[in-house]
Design goal:
InterPro entries: MdtP/NodT-like (IPR010131), OMP_efflux (IPR003423). It holds the Pfam family OEP. This is Cobalt-zinc-cadmium resistance protein CzcC. The protein is mainly α. It has a domain of 346 residues: Outer membrane efflux proteins (OEP) (Up-down Bundle), CATH 1.20.1600.10. 65% of the residues lie in helices and 5% in strands. The protein is built from 13 helices and 4 strands. It has a 4-stranded antiparallel sheet with strand order 1-2-3-4. Helix 6 packs antiparallel against helix 9. The longest helix is centred in the first third of the chain and has 73 residues. The protein is elongated.
Amino acid sequence: MVSYATIRPVWQSCAIVLLVTICVVGCKSPQPCCDPGLPARELACRTGVTMQKTPPCQQVIPPGVVLEDGLSEDEAVLIALSNNSAFQATLAQLGMAHGDAVQANLLMNPQYLIYFPTGAKEGQYTLFAPIESYLLRPSRVKVANREYRRIGETLVQNGLDLARNVRIAYADLAVATQQAQLAQEALQIRGEVFDVTEKRLEDGDISELETITAKVDRLNAKAAAGVQDQTVAITEARLATLIGLTRLPTPLLPLPLQSPTLRMLDEQQLIDQAFACRPDYNAAKWAVAAASQRSRLSRWLFLRIDGVVDVRSDPGGRTGGGLRFDIPIFNRNEGGVIRADWEVNAAMHQRDAIADQIVADVRTSIRTLRQASDNLRVLEQEVAPALVESLDISRKGFADGGTDYLLVLQTTTQYLDAKARILDQKAAYSRALAELERAVGCHLEAGLVDYETLMEVVDVPLAMPKEEPNEGTESDQPDTKPVDAAPEDEDADKHTKDLADLLELDGNH
């Protein structure tokens, strides 16, 4: 029979731990800032299309997409963001980061030690509450929040990369389809020329050799048309894989490539735009913020303090309290501090490398776009009209017997080559535009946006980390002391303060 005197110390200790837990949990501290809709909203703002999540082993056609009337470029991007299995798989990383953020906010469980009364020995009930977990929880939550945002921005960049790849594949399919139509036009022209040569051979105006040459040209055009049809099938399969519609029974019918309609933008303005809202650069800044917070946290990971409540089961019911803590004589996590400092250094260099890559991407894309636009303007406005007129004159002259077949062959070849070059330049323009939009981080036809406007649209609760200096600050230089040399307290405290000031964010959202 268990007496009340025996049970009372247990209830007393449980009441104490409950009171302490309520006080700690009720204190104001950073909370996990998890937003599962972040990638979808940012991609919608940047690309103009709203993605959907597709369950595994399924293929869906998003609302508003009608494949029978032709597949537009934006429809292809929308289908890809909703169906591409590789991209959908990466979205699971955001859920994992959500779990890490929630776990970082949880408190460590207290420990309860019980010695049952045996013989002359009285019972003892001891409660250990890990105080350091309460003290370090805000820093852990800040690290988790920054990691969550880093992963979110990385997923947005993955979506932009997928959109770029889809636009390029779409341009390849569209130009292949138009080149197949051009190959059929070339076959028709060669056939008409061959019919004229047959008629003139019957009239005795030309030799049989010229007839054979025209026949060979027609056969070559027929072979080229067959090859181009296979090219269309190959590019269609490539695009279907990217957009996730590999089991679609009907072929994809892209719309014809159009002439450029986007006005040329200033190169420096595009670079500034890319620095303002490109997701991988933002992810790199969040990585620096997370690494800096981890570096600050690493200076306290050696800390272990337990609050102790001890209850005796003697008739007097004595209750005592105290602390149990590690004495940091041999281990103050010196190696972890050095590693954390170098992780900050690596994150900064990675951010700078992405910044350099942004400049290279924008400059290469905008100059390729200008080159394709200039070439296309010359071909469409100057070369093509002259060749059309020349072809008509030569074909009429050959039919009337006043023009040699070699001249007809030359003008026909020039005309077909010019049309093929126009298609190639249209495709080059579309590819360059896709690369430029990926480099800048937004859909250029919708106009440039700044990062503050983007954040208002996506309604992000956690502010973007501020830019930190790249040179001339002690915080940029990690501690390079030997592993076996413990850092001086003053230097460690100063470095901790530098890291705190480096990327100080409001963690109480």
